Amino acid sequence: MSTATLERIHSAHDEHPEHLEHLTEHSGQPTQGDHREIPMRSGTPLPFTIRVDCPAKTNLTLAVGEPHAEWGGRHALDTIYCAVGVYDTVTATAKAPGSGFSLDLEGAHLGDLASSTSDMRRNHAVLALFAMAEAAGRDPDVALTITKRIPVGAGLGGGSADAAATILAINRLWNLDWPIDRLRAIAATLGADMPFCLTGGLAHGTGFGEQIEDITAESAAARELESQGFCGDVLVGAYQSQLSTPEVYHAFDIMGAADGDRNHLQAAAISLHPRSGRAISAALAAGARHAFISGSGPSVVAFVPDDASAQRVIDAWVREDAADRIIRAKAPVMPIIGVTQ
Ligand SMILES: C[C@@](CO)(OP(=O)(O)O)[C@H](O)COP(=O)(O)OP(=O)(O)OC[C@H]1O[C@@H](n2ccc(N)nc2=O)[C@H](O)[C@@H]1O
Ligand SMILES: Nc1ncnc2c1ncn2[C@@H]1O[C@H](COP(=O)(O)OP(=O)(O)O)[C@@H](O)[C@H]1O
């Protein structure tokens, strides 16, 4: 029997880590005209690195409609995205012209990315770098690093977060200053979740998930979600095992959604990974206001109203061996962009 490990992913907003000393943006909206003076030594620009801390996502509601041939068989969605403060960190540094790209991956939980058959050129961050290079008419001479903390293949959008972080980093590294709509159009060519991940926070997603309408913090919709308990402290129950998103959609096509599920993929994900269902029941019994499968799973997200309930949920998950990793975080949050010398 495994023992769950508990991690607290600190909110970079609260922490003021050293790398944010040179913070130029503190929101998901890349601002136009926000140029930085690049320090020079003897007339030569010093190499600098763009660092983006990009959060995981979950879906507070996920209504799944019909598949559409023009979207490559993807289903129509109506979803409320919420960014959860478990951050991957992507850095981008310019390399010598003509030298190509490089990718370094680190982290204790790399899932199938650690496998020797994992092709670096298929990594979502690298695909995003190539999409930006093509759109900008430039060579992808960039060194990327990814520090993974978001569980892989978990319904938490980790690959999308890394791709979105790369797009934000390249937009700054190359001084493109493209507006968010242009970045979202590029992101939508790569995946359904990526346009949301560029800005985080809360948003309404339609189309195949790529049409994004921000839900701003001051809006009535955000206040309503907060009053329902979809705000503040979150526990993520994560697993060693991964679920494939296409397989979960396929299971949904066969079995449909269970009555009352806000996430239409929940029953399909639990049918493939029953331990997640036990984590949901345990969390609700222990005082979580909401507990549900994140996206296509298998991760479970539980919103807890206070520290005491958080501890009860953690105790229940450990006692019942309902998760392999338990991560404490905040939601909703936004990506953070920093420039370091
Ligand atoms: C289920 C969701 C909920 O946000 O997220 P995850 O749980 O994967 O993170 C998304 O719909 C996943 O988004 P993402 O993983 O970006 O999907 P894509 O790369 O565009 O598509 C991967 C595959 O998922 C299925 N897919 C995806 C989106 C959609 N609207 N309908 C689908 O049927 C298709 O089989 C597609 O080939
Ligand atoms: N940078 C990346 N981070 C995570 N997964 C990636 C990445 N690049 C490619 N992948 C692949 O994408 C698949 C889905 O992973 P992920 O995005 O974490 O999950 P999900 O789609 O369930 O949210 C995995 O099989 C993984 O190997």
Automatic annotation (TrEMBL):
GO BP: isopentenyl diphosphate biosynthetic process, methylerythritol 4-phosphate pathway; terpenoid biosynthetic process
Catalytic activity, reaction form: 4-CDP-2-C-methyl-D-erythritol + ATP = 4-CDP-2-C-methyl-D-erythritol 2-phosphate + ADP + H(+)
GHMP kinase N-terminal domain boundaries: 126-201
GO MF annotation list: 4-(cytidine 5'-diphospho)-2-C-methyl-D-erythritol kinase activity; ATP binding
Biased composition (Basic and acidic residues): 13-25
Assigned keywords, A-Z: ATP-binding, Isoprene biosynthesis, Kinase, Nucleotide-binding, Transferase
Entry annotated with the keyword Nucleotide-binding: yes
Enzyme Commission number(s): 2.7.1.148
Protein name (record): 4-diphosphocytidyl-2-C-methyl-D-erythritol kinase
GHMP kinase C-terminal domain sequence ranges: 260-319
Protein species of origin: Bifidobacterium reuteri DSM 23975
Record: active site: 57, 193
UniProt binding sites for ATP: 151-161
Family: Belongs to the GHMP kinase family. IspE subfamily.
InterPro entries associated with the record: GHMP_kinase_C_dom, GHMP_kinase_C_sf, GHMP_kinase_N_dom, IspE, Ribosomal_Su5_D2-typ_SF, Ribsml_uS5_D2-typ_fold_subgr
Record's function text: Catalyzes the phosphorylation of the position 2 hydroxy group of 4-diphosphocytidyl-2C-methyl-D-erythritol.
Origin: domain of life: Bacteria
Pathway assignment: Isoprenoid biosynthesis; isopentenyl diphosphate biosynthesis via DXP pathway; isopentenyl diphosphate from 1-deoxy-D-xylulose 5-phosphate: step 3/6
Pfam families referenced in this protein's UniProt entry, alphabetically: GHMP_kinases_C (PF08544), GHMP_kinases_N (PF00288)
